[in-house]
Amino acid sequence: MNMNMLRQAQKMQADMQKMQGQLEEKEYTAQAGGGAVKVVANGKHQLKSLTILPDAVDPDEVELLQDMILLAVNDAFQQADEDAKSTMNKLAGGLNLGSLG
């Protein structure tokens, strides 16, 4: 491995660690039920906040409320995963592997 490739690999590793830290702290917001349920999660798949409008709380419709919460949480987590994948693909795309062969 030549020195240029080694430096490039070290820079990529440092960039990836920095990006991963940023992605873990980034927040993703999702809603369900026309905004009746709103969640905010971070890139570590931790729920930061949950807002439920009073109109969504109906003792006869608990299952519907549960479904809305699940939908919103899963949507926020999916946003985080897609953002991480996209960011890492951009970063990996900058690596010049042409000199390996």
Concise overview:
With 101 residues, this protein is α+β, with helices and mostly antiparallel strands. The protein has helices at residues 3-25, 62-93; strands at residues 27-32, 37-42, 47-52.
Q: Overview of this structure, please?
A:
This protein has 2 helices and 3 strands. The protein has helices at 3-25, 62-93, and strands at 27-32, 37-42, 47-52. Helix 1 (3-25) runs antiparallel to helix 2. The chain starts with a helix and ends in an 8-residue tail after the last helix. The relative contact order is 0.18.
Task: Using brief descriptors, characterize the structure shown.
18% strand; 101 residues; three-stranded antiparallel sheet; 2 helices; disordered C terminus; rod-shaped; alpha+beta
Q: How is the secondary structure organized here?
A:
Layout: H1 3-25, E1 27-32, E2 37-42, E3 47-52, H2 62-93
Antiparallel strand pairs: 1-2, 2-3
Main sheet record = 3 strands, antiparallel
Strand order of the largest sheet: 1-2-3
Shape: rod-shaped
Quote the average pLDDT: 88
Number of helices: 2
The N- and C-terminal alpha carbons lie at a distance of 11 Å
